[in-house]
Amino acid sequence: MARCEAVLFDLFETLVTEFDPDWRPPASPAERLGLPAEAFARVWRARHAARMTRELDFRDVLRESCAAAGVQVDRRRGKIIEDLYAERLAAKARSLTTVDLGILRALDQLRAGGLRIGLVSNCAVEEVAAWSASPLAARFDEVAFSCRVGCAKPDPAIYLRACRGLGVVPDRAAFVGDGGSDELAGATAVGLTAHRARWFLDQWPAERRDRDVQRGQGFPAIMEPAELVAAFTD
Length: 234
Hints:
Blueprint: E1 6-9, H1 29-33, H2 37-46, H3 48-53, H4 58-68, H5 75-97, H6 101-112, E2 116-121, E3 142-145, H7 146-149, H8 156-166, E4 173-177, H9 183-189, E5 193-197, H10 206-215, E6 221-222, H11 227-232
Parallel strand pairs: 1-2, 1-4, 2-3, 4-5, 5-6
Helix pairs in contact: 2-4, 4-5
C-alpha cells in the first residue's frame, strides 16, 4: 500500500461491542405482541436490506409483523411497540456511549499522526440515534451510515463515498472491521487495504468466534487497539 493517509473503521464489534456476558434474553418482541414467532422472524429477515439503507425503524418492522400475522395494532399493542422501541434505543445508546478508553486513545493518536479517520457502518436508523452523544463522534472526519447514505457494505459505493468525504483515494487508505457483512472483501475490492479487528471478537462465545475465524481468513489481524498506531503510522 502507498503511504496511508486515512483509516476507515466499521462500528459495531470494531469500535463498540454489544456483547454482554451477563445478558439474558427477555421475552421476544413476538411474545410481547402476541404474534407467532415466525411472523416476526419472516418480516425481520425480509426487511433487513430496507432497514440498513432507508429511514425504516424498528417500529415499522413491528407494525408490519402484526399486519403479516393478521393482528390489529390496537392501543395496547401500540404501547408495547413504543416500549420495545424505547428499550432498543436505550440498548444501542449504551454501546455508543460506553467506549473503551484504549480505542479512544488509539483514534486520538492516529489523528495526531496526521491520518484522517472515517466510519463506514451498516446500521438501522435507531441503532445510531445516539451517535451525537458518543465520545466517538468528535473523533471522525467522515461518517457513512448505511441507513442515511442509501447503500450498505459490501457495496463499493459506501466505501467510495467515505473516501471522497475524506479526500483520499482508496489505495492510500485502510479499512478496519470485524469482518461482518463481507466488509473486508468489499473494502479490498475498491482498493482499500483491509485489516481484521479481533479485540472484541475474542470475547464472544466459542461458536461465534470459531465461525468468524473462518470468515476472516486471509486478512491481517489486529489484536488490540494499541496496535493500530504502529500499523498505520510511519
